[in-house]
Amino acid sequence: MFKIIHQSVEEKVIEFKEVFRRISYVTPTSYLELLSMYKKVLGDQRRTNETARMRLVRGLEVLKEAEIEIEKMNQQLTKDQPILEKTQIQVEEKKKDIAEKTIVAEEEKTIVSAEEAIASKKEAEVKAVKDDADSKLSVALPALEIAIAKVKKIQVKDFYDLKVINNPKPSIVTCFKAVALFLRPTMKPKVPNDPGQKEMDPEGYFFDIGKKELLANPNKLLQ
After folding, report:
1. Cα(159)–Cα(157) distance, rounded to whole angstroms?
2. Could you give the CA distance from residue 172 to residue 162 in angstroms, rounded to a whole number?
3. CB 161: neighbour CB atoms within 10 A?
4. What is the CA radius of gyration of the chain?
5. Nearest in space to 98 (alpha carbons), one of 120, 113, 87
6. How far apart are CA 171 and CA 177, in angstroms?
7. How many C-beta atoms lie closer than 10 Å to residue 208's C-beta?
8. What is the pLDDT of residue 105?
9. DSSP letters of 91-138?
10. How many Å apart are CA 130 and CA 72, to the nearest integer?
11. CB neighbour list of residue 34: distance below 8 Å, 6 or more residues apart
12. What is the pTM of this model?
């Protein structure tokens, strides 16, 4: 197709010259530019497709995990259903027995009513926990996808860029403090001796743990 396009333009150049008396040129550079443009468009589309594919794969994984959790909850509810039904039957039987007895039976009725109230309260508590879990899950899933997408954008070269920074901004120092507390919780940073470094990094999380430990092996840090 590239060859056909290039050659058809060469033919049109001749026709253009005959009609408008103007000369145009079709050079090998034009052909190479056509290939280069196609290569760029193809690369962009492949990256777009790969990003969409990864988002879809992660979404399916999250849905699968949610399906497993829901199945566990359903199994638990199914398992508890006979107990609930048995309790309801026992309550009804006790109510009938109470109706046929004396004042002593009335006292038993009070006890049964209390048990029924406890069962109802437990049922309400279980429903509240389930509703709360569903609500938190609906908020957590989009946040999880955003976090995963941002993590996937991190590249090793980003760490090499950080490695050569000598004047870190407060946001960089704070970020390295958080990473150090997660990945090196037992390490105690050394306060920089240099006054300038000490002013930028009072605790030493960037210049000590960050540069000497974490950024010493960028590939390992990325993993």
Report:
1. 5
2. 9
3. 11
4. 35
5. 113
6. 10
7. 20
8. 64
9. HHHHHHHHHHS-HHHHHHHHHHHHHHHHHHHHHHHHHHHHHHHHHHHH
10. 13
11. 2, 5, 6
12. 0.38
Q: What is the pLDDT of residues 132-186, one digit of tens each?
A: 888 888 888 898 899 889 888 989 898 888 888 899 999 999 999 999 999 999 9
Q: What is the mean pLDDT of residues 198-210?
A: 92
Q: Position of tokens 């908020």?
A: 139
Token pair 């009804």: residue? 92
Distance CA 91, CA 172 (A): 64
| Look-up of token digits 């210049």 | 207
* C-alpha distance from residue 104 to each of 90, 99, 115 (Å): 18, 11, 17
Residue that the structure tokens 């991190």 belong to: 154
Map tokens 């990945």 to a residue: 183
User: Whole-angstrom Cα distance, residue 72 to residue 90?
Assistant: 28
